[in-house]
Design a protein that fits this description.
By secondary structure, the chain is of the alpha+beta class. The chain has helices spanning 112-122, 126-140, 206-212, 224-228, 242-252, 259-266, 353-367, 369-396, 407-419, and strands spanning 11-16, 24-34, 39-44, 47-48, 54-56, 61-63, 67-68, 71-76, 84-87, 92-98, 156-162, 167-173, 176-182, 185-189, 201-202, 279-290, 298-301, 313-315. Helix 1 (112-122) crosses helix 2. The longest helix is centred in the last third of the chain and has 28 residues, at 369-396.
């Protein structure tokens, strides 16, 4: 078994009416990864696939679905899957690293990030995405290095999955899992198991396996997090963990949570949610999912580290969207060190155009008081203007489908102009 590093992960949030304002579901995630890792934002159109087709994921090949939906993904640029993303049907998924009593599998299988993308590509509701993920987990397992390094970083996964109507928390331990349905209010996940006694779906052998390991006596009420990990579930929402801090921030704004509120939470450094250091927030996402099916879902991505110094740029699914070139990293084909055996013997420059310009701009914002302050104010003004434009679409209930085709890319161009 690989040495387990200290828990470092991400934070994923959802607010549903009545906790969220305006009859909308609001989803958000910070992806916390090694500070030198590039996160790209990628659009993949819907596609039909021939019967029997195979799909190459990060480490293993799986059977391809006959039909895959259009997706927008924020992902570490060295792998196939995604940290977070959304599909054309308004399904959003984010995952977290979790650890527990069950040893983590070092053998290469599906990464949790592969399962995020597979769920988005194959499901048109949150619960169907959950089913896709657990079926693939049963068939192929989860495992393999989750970091672009010869140092092993492996973990089990939890997922927060949302659509216009509801959300699901799915938490795994090896092939075993539990799921909790969220139909209103707020919910967050971080790098610990958090499903306790409210279990709405589960692996058929989950309880028996826990009994066989001596983790549960079969008598007391079954608590998934307490049984499968070492979490003191009685103190989960009162400790100083990031899970607890996220819970408190969501509840502080309960009843009036908007996309702006979610962005504010993701930017919070005091709580550790906007992470700094060797592991840091390398990409962020917020989605607005109106319960009215006639209104478009709007997804915002930074594509750059540190949301406090980044622009949340809007994306809407419409026909005719082209490749998001300025947030797409270079590719290296079969020469990629990830593909070669032994893996990770070198690390190529995976920075995309926006990442490079933002990297230089972040130094200015950090070190040059006058110029840096002006630059930060300009990107904040750009974001506010885009938020206002998106709010106008939702309020008026009208979308000219030609407008959003280059929405994300045009916002990047405006951001790049500020960076000079």
């Amino acid at each position: 078994m690989a040495a387990r590093p200290p828990p470092r992960s991400c934070d994923t949030f959802v607010a549903l009416p009545p906790a969220a304002a305006g009859g909308r579901v609001v989803f958000g995630k910070n992806s916390d990864r090694p500070s030198d890792e590039v996160q790209e934002v990628l659009y993949v159109p819907a596609a039909a696939h021939p019967a029997g087709a195979q799909l190459e994921c990060t480490y293993i090949t799986v059977e391809q679905a006959e039909q895959t939906y259009a997706v927008v993904l924020s992902r570490p640029s060295w792998l196939w899957g995604a940290e977070m993303g959304a599909n054309e049907h308004g399904v959003c998924v984010g995952n977290e690293a979790v650890w527990g009593r069950e040893e983590v599998c070092d053998a290469e299988a599906l990464l949790g990030m592969d399962l995020v993308r597979l769920g988005l590509e194959r499901a048109d509701t949150a619960e169907k995405a959950l089913t896709v993920i657990v079926d693939l987990l049963e068939k192929y397992g989860q495992g393999g290095n989750c970091m672009e390094s010869h140092m092993a970083f492996t973990y089990h996964n939890s997922f927060l999955i949302a659509d216009r109507k509801e959300a699901w928390v799915l938490e795994t331990s090896g092939k075993h899992w539990a799921a909790e349905k969220v139909e209103g209010g707020v919910r967050n996940i971080s790098n610990q198991l958090s499903i306790t006694t409210k279990i709405d779906r589960e692996h058929p052998e989950m309880r028996e396996y826990a009994k066989s390991k001596g983790w549960w006596d079969g008598e007391k009420e079954f608590d998934f997090a307490a049984t499968y990990s070492y979490v003191n579930t009685a103190r989960m929402t009162t400790s100083r963990s990031r899970y607890c801090e996220g819970y408190k921030l969501l509840n502080k704004h309960k009843g009036a949570i908007t996309a702006e509120t979610m962005m504010e939470i993701l930017r919070d450094k005091e709580s550790g949610i906007n992470m700094e250091g060797g592991f840091m927030t390398t990409g962020s996402m917020v989605s607005v999912l109106p319960q009215d099916p006639n209104l478009p879902c709007i997804h915002f991505f930074t594509g750059t580290p540190d949301p406090a110094r980044s622009v949340f740029k809007p994306f809407i699914f419409v026909p005719g969207i082209t490749e998001l070139l300025k947030t797409s990293s270079p590719t290296f084909g079969p020469d990629d060190p990830v593909k070669k055996q032994p893996r990770f013997q070198s690390k190529p420059d995976r920075r995309h155009e926006l990442y490079k310009k933002h990297e230089s701009a972040a130094v200015v914002m950090e070190t040059m008081k006058g110029k840096g302050k002006k630059m930060l104010e300009e990107i904040q003004t750009l974001e506010k203007r885009k938020m206002s434009e998106m709010e106008s679409i939702l309020q008026n209930g009208y979308l000219d489908i030609n407008q959003p085709v280059n929405l994300f890319s045009q916002c990047i161009d405006e951001e790049l102009k500020i960076y000079g």
